[in-house]
Amino acid sequence: MEPVIPWQKSSFSGDQEGPNCLEVGVGRGTLLLRESEDPATVLEATGAGLAGLIRRLRRPSGLPQPSADTRQ
Asked: Using CA atoms, how far apart are residues 22 and 66, in angstroms rounded to an integer?
């Protein structure tokens, strides 16, 4: 039997009840992400992996990756 995952809608989805919400759940030591429009497709990430993805997406395109010695 599959474990029941309590999904939480992202606050960025607002008060919408439609099928375009990001939902977050917790797996065995990982974060689970899915779009409410396609709940069968689940992305799994560690906290560090998700934070790295968010940092990369926020960085303007075309800028080089900062080297380890220049990160703050």
From this structure: 29
